[in-house]
């Protein structure tokens, strides 16, 4: 503890100075775009991560694209924008900013530690799908895939823990691989779009034993799109705080999200939708995973070409696996400073391996539901906290912020309900966000927020850094940086 009130992770916190920041097109946009170019995301667009016949294409290409656009805009405006603004205005990372919504003691676990834990879930997902793409090169057996998954997770965890700076340099160019593959597949299949029929597509996706199965309704498609996209993005939305610390001003936060999140989502997942629909229109072959080696081989007219494309997509997926490990390691180093990172990350990696080897990580819909349920209410509560504080960071709140924890618990239950069979809630990640926001507002107004604790060490540092900044940067950032936490 520091000053008898602040834990060391808060008393030692340092804001990223304005002199270290850069325009949106140099950091936020390309980094977020790289997340959405990960083939595990866009390959799920036609199915929505679920097993409904026809997936998101059940009502046609137009409705599928509409659902995608709605989901992309929700990600930007609801899940990213406020965290991004908080990061820009304070220059502080998520685990520090979260101490307002969850308290100086509660913030130790939420959202920082939870972010680290869930990153190992993403590592398991990455290892599973990468090994699935690589397995055909090694005979395609289940044993080969499991061995590849183990090696992939371990190597990514090691690099993420020790050498992320080298991976970051390579990752600058690797996103070009999925872009090129999507363009090639789109060119090959675009001619079949005119012959695509949604009803026929749904019928083709109904298994012989699934008597009476039907495709989703209009609202069902929209809800599935929101569930799939928002669930995938939820952790990255909260991480917008960390992205925001590198933004110069509010315009950079907005533009970084509009291009790196909304546009990247629409382009990558939209291309996957068009590819699946065009391929069916041209060949009549039902497929809802455009990244499948067999599908790509059929489109290209060569099984070898499909395997090569799968290999390239797997290579391009390695940096995201390392980044997940890196974020988890940083979280554990902060929240568990006395535990050797190799031990904490090693335990997390073992969990990732279990998820990948058992195939649990391959249940994309379930994974997205868990992520959305976990971080949906966090983003909702943070947004309300920000607005109640006058569109700025309120500062760390003493102890445990009951408003934050209760709103998260209820929101999580709502978000996870469809997965565990409690209730069939459409667009559960979005509903979890709304529930978290509403309950936080009610409890905050009821007086369940503890008092704010001042962080005096931040103010002179922020002012000193501003003195060194260019005039143009000063004009945009001065007020936000000097506002600091509220003093009560």
Task: Give your account of this protein's structure.
The protein is mainly alpha-helical. 68% of the residues lie in helices and 0% in strands. The two termini are 20 Å apart. The model is unreliable at 460-488 (pLDDT under 50).
How far apart the termini lie comes to 20 Å
SS class: mainly alpha
Number of strands: 0
Q: How helix-rich are the residues, as a percent range?
A: 55-70%
Shape: globular
Which band does the percent of strand residues land in? under 5%
Main sheet overview: none
Average pLDDT level:
88
The sequence of SSEs as H and E is HHHHHHHHHHHHHHHHHHHHH
Task: Report the CATH superfamily.
Answer: Hydantoin permease
How much is the radius of gyration in Å? 23 Å
What is the CATH class? Mainly Alpha
Number of helices: 21
CATH topology: Hydantoin permease
Spans with pLDDT under 50 lasting ≥5 residues? Answer: 460-488
Indicate the CATH architecture: Orthogonal Bundle
The domain tally reads 1
Q: Secondary structure elements and their pairing?
A:
Blueprint lengths: L7 H4 L16 H9 L2 H4 L18 H30 L3 H9 L9 H23 L7 H21 L1 H8 L4 H14 L8 H7 L13 H21 L1 H5 L5 H34 L9 H8 L2 H33 L5 H18 L5 H25 L13 H19 L7 H18 L12 H11 L2 H13 L5
Helix pairs in contact: 2-13, 4-11, 4-13, 4-17, 6-7, 6-15, 6-16, 6-17, 7-15, 7-16, 8-15, 9-13, 11-17, 14-15, 15-16, 17-18, 17-19, 18-19, 20-21
């Amino acid at each position: 503890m520091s000053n008898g009130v602040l834990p060391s992770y808060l008393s030692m916190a340092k804001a990223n100075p304005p002199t270290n920041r850069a325009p949106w097109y140099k950091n936020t946009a390309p980094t977020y775009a790289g997340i959405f170019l990960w083939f595990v995301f866009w390959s799920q667009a036609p199915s929505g991560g679920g097993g409904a016949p026809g997936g998101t294409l059940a009502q046609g290409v137009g409705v599928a694209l509409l659902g995608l656009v709605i989901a992309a805009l929700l990600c930007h405006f609801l899940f990213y924008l406020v965290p991004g603004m908080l990061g820009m205005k304070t220059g502080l990372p998520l685990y520090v900013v979260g101490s307002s919504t969850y308290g100086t003691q509660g913030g130790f676990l939420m959202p920082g530690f939870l972010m680290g834990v869930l990153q190992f879930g993403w590592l398991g997902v990455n290892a599973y799908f990468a090994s699935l793409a690589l397995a055909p090169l090694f005979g395609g057996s289940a044993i080969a895939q499991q061995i590849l998954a183990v090696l992939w997770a371990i190597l990514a965890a090691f690099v993420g823990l020790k050498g992320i700076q080298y991976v970051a340099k390579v990752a600058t160019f690797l996103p070009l691989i999925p872009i090129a593959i999507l363009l090639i597949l789109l060119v090959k299949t675009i001619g079949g779009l005119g012959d695509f029929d949604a009803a026929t597509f749904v019928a083709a996706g109904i298994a012989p034993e699934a008597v009476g199965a039907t495709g989703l309704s209009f609202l069902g498609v929209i809800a599935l799109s929101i569930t799939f996209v928002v669930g995938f993005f939820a952790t990255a939305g909260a991480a917008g705080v960390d992205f925001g610390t590198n933004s110069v001003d509010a315009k950079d936060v907005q533009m970084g999200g509009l291009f790196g999140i909304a546009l990247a989502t629409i382009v990558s997942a939209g291309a996957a939708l068009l590819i699946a629909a065009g391929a069916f229109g041209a060949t009549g072959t039902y497929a809802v995973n455009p990244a499948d080696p067999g599908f790509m081989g059929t489109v290209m007219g060569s099984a070898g070409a499909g395997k090569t494309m799968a290999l390239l997509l797997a290579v391009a997926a390695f940096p995201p696996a390392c980044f997940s490990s890196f974020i988890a390691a940083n979280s554990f180093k902060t929240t568990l400073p006395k535990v050797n990172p190799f031990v904490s990350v090693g335990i997390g990696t073992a969990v990732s391996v279990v998820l990948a080897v058992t195939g649990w990580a391959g249940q994309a819909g379930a994974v997205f539901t868990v992520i959305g349920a976990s971080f949906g209410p966090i983003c909702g509560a943070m947004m309300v906290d920000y607005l109640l504080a006058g569109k700025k960071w309120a500062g760390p709140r003493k102890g445990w912020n009951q408003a934050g924890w209760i709103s998260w618990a209820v929101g999580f239950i709502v978000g996870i309900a469809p997965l565990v069979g409690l209730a069939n809630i459409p667009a559960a990640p979005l509903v979890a966000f709304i529930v978290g926001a509403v309950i936080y507002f009610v409890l905050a107004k009821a007086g369940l927020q503890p008092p704010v604790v001042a962080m005096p060490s931040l103010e002179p540092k922020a002012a000193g850094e501003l003195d060194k900044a260019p005039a143009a940067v000063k004009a945009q950032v001065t007020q936000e940086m000097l506002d600091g936490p509220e003093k009560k």
